[in-house]
């Protein structure tokens, strides 16, 4: 048997694609193969349990365990890092719990927090005096950790309560769809629920829209006074929360 | 030939970050799991940089997969190279095993058949990895639970050939020798006598558990007496070597691991073949 054929048989055994298939490589290998299969499954389940601890708390032990087992059967690990294994777990949860969208959104939040935690570093270089900047022409540079995710439920409030070890609120739909903003400030991952208008503005500015052009758009949508005030409020918050790391004018 | 380093160290694990960074700890080097730091930024990379300012650091990987029939992962090696360039490690090591085939990654150290074909594959992959990393690496003997029919050579003969053909060094895991010897019924001392001693640059000492039928390499308990005995047996045969306690689970307080390391130091002193370096400046 060639090395490639041996490794293909081994992978097929590990994954358990055919659950009742006899172990390959003869009866003497059976006990050892069982250890490898157990190690494989245990490592993946442990990775999900560790990466989605609050989702597990919310869902409850048995249901979460079932979701992990389903995911391990459905999604083989492809990356060299186990950190990437949970990437599709929210999709598995969405399939398993279509009537409870907060479950998948909780998992999305946990995944985003973990991603932000190890995202690239960025030194904040902002002028001390904002008046020195030509804001009409200013292009904003954002922290590389920023992630934006669709949000329809109060999953962030549930996560915060679970994390603080207090009684979480019942699951609820938001009055209107919003966006979950996740980023890292210093070495701490943070999140906030923002409305879709701010999310659109953030995405546009991150793609190179000048602050002046953003103001013109908000003025067109909200009128002169409210438009300028809204864009100014966004800018102030983005700077205060270290979402913006630089300004080029 | 990879330069030798003589000393006693530990694997750096999260529960000990504060102890390691806030105090002078009696170790000559620290080893980290490479993949945990092959990330873009954030706290883990900052901690590794700070640790590196205080101690020599060895990078120990689990995903290079030098035994894969379809070659090494260039993207993985590019990330590892970036970490190597930043940390300037004492050693870069991984295991004699395979973890990946095509788009599948098992995240476990899977066993190889010790055949001529596997030898050619492993040597080609190590050569490619060393080329991309710009340095020679250490290869660690794994614990295994399956031995394949049709093996052309013993594991130690396989390792000897790998070292001779690629110029890589050896990371000798004494616990893994004991576990595999028990599981497959070979003589652990014959293994230790058969490896190329001049190639050994690092030693791992760890513990294991008795499974239902086989020993399991769990790294979750203290080094047991038979592993200490094997360490004492092999140490006089080696040149200067970096010896460490490797604990991956059920991590005890740092003082417990330092006490275990003192036991290694005492055996080293009796062997006379290795000596602790002074604490890193």
Account of the 3D structure:
The complex is a heterodimer of chains A (249) and B (281). Chain A has 249 residues and is α+β, with helices and mostly antiparallel strands. Chain A has 2 domains: 1-99, no CATH class; 102-249, Outer Surface Protein A, domain 3, CATH 3.90.930.50. Helices cover 52% and strands 14% of the residues of chain A. In chain A, strands 2-3-4 form a 3-stranded antiparallel β-sheet, with helices on both faces. A two-stranded antiparallel ribbon of chain A has the order 1-5. Chain A is elongated, with a radius of gyration of 23 Å. Chain A starts with a helix and ends with a strand. The model of chain B is unreliable at 273-281 (pLDDT under 50). In chain B, strand 2, helix 2 (43-54) and strand 3 form a beta-alpha-beta unit. Chain B has a single domain, classed as Alpha-Beta Barrel (TIM Barrel). In chain B, 38% of the residues lie in helices and 18% in strands. Chain B has helices at 17-22, 43-54, 74-87, 116-133, 155-166, 174-184, 188-194, 225-234, 254-271; strands at 7-11, 29-33, 57-60, 92-95, 98-101, 104-110, 138-140, 169-173, 200-205, 209-210, 215-216, 242-245. Chain B is an alpha/beta fold and 281 residues long. The two termini of chain B are 25 Å apart. Chain A binds chain B through residues 1-4, 6-8, 10-11, 14-15, 25-26, 29, 31-33, 35-36, 39-40, 43-44, 76-83, 85, 117-121, 144, 184, 187, and chain B through 35, 38-46, 63, 67-70, 73, 76, 98-101, 103-108, 110, 112-113, 115, 117-118, 121, 144-150, 183, 211-214, 216.
């Amino acid at each position: 048997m060639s090395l490639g054929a041996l490794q293909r048989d081994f992978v097929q055994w590990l994954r358990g694609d055919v659950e009742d298939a006899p172990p390959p490589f003869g009866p003497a290998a059976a006990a050892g193969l069982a250890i490898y299969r157990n190690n494989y499954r245990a490592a993946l389940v442990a990775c999900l349990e560790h990466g989605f601890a609050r989702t597990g708390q919310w869902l409850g032990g048995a249901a979460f365990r079932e979701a992990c087992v389903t995911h391990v059967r459905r999604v083989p690990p492809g990356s060299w890092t186990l950190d990437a294994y949970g990437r599709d777990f929210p999709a598995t949860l969405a399939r398993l719990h279509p009537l409870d969208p907060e479950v998948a959104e909780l998992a999305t939040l946990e995944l985003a927090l973990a991603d932000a935690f190890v995202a690239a570093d960025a030194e904040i270089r902002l002028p001390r005096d904002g008046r020195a900047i030509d804001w009409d022409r200013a292009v904003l540079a954002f922290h590389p950790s920023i992630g934006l995710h669709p949000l329809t439920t109060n999953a962030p409030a549930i996560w915060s309560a679970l994390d603080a070890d207090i009684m979480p609120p019942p699951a609820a739909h938001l009055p209107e769809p919003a966006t979950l903003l996740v980023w890292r400030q210093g070495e701490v991952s943070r999140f906030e629920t923002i409305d879709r208008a701010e999310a659109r503005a953030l995405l546009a500015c991150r793609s190179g829209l000048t602050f002046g052009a953003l103001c013109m758009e908000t003025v067109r949508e909200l009128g002169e006074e409210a438009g300028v005030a809204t864009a100014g409020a966004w800018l102030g918050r983005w700077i205060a929360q270290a979402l913006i790391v630089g300004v080029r004018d | 030939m990879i330069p030798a380093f003589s000393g006693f160290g530990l694997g750096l694990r999260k529960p000990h970050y504060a102890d390691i960074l806030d105090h002078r700890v009696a170790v000559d080097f620290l080893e980290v799991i490479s993949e945990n730091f092959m990330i873009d930024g954030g706290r883990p990379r900052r901690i590794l940089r700070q640790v590196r300012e205080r101690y020599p650091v060895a990078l120990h990987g689990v995903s290079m997969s030098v035994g894969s029939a379809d070659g090494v992962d260039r993207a993985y090696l590019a990330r590892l190279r970036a970490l190597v360039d930043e940390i300037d490690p004492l050693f870069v090591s991984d295991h004699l095993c395979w973890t990946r085939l095509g788009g599948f990654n098992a995240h476990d150290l899977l066993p190889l058949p010790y055949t001529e074909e596997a030898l050619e594959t492993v040597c080609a992959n190590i050569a490619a990895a060393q080329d991309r990393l710009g340095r020679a690496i250490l290869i660690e003997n794994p614990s295994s639970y399956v031995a394949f029919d049709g093996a052309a050579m013993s594991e130690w003969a396989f390792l000897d050939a790998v070292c001779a053909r690629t110029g890589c060094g050896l990371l000798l895991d004494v616990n893994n020798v004991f576990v595999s010897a028990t599981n497959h019924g070979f003589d652990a001392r014959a293994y230790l006598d058969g490896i190329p001693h001049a190639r050994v640059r690092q030693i791992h000492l760890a513990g294991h558990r008795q499974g239902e039928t086989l020993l399991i390499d769990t790294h979750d308990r203290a080094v047991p007496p038979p592993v200490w005995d094997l360490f004492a047996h092999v140490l006089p045969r080696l040149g200067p070597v970096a010896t460490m306690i490797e604990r991956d689970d059920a991590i005890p307080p740092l003082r417990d691991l330092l006490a275990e390391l003192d036991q290694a130091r005492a055996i080293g002193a009796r062997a006379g073949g290795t000596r602790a370096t002074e604490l890193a400046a």
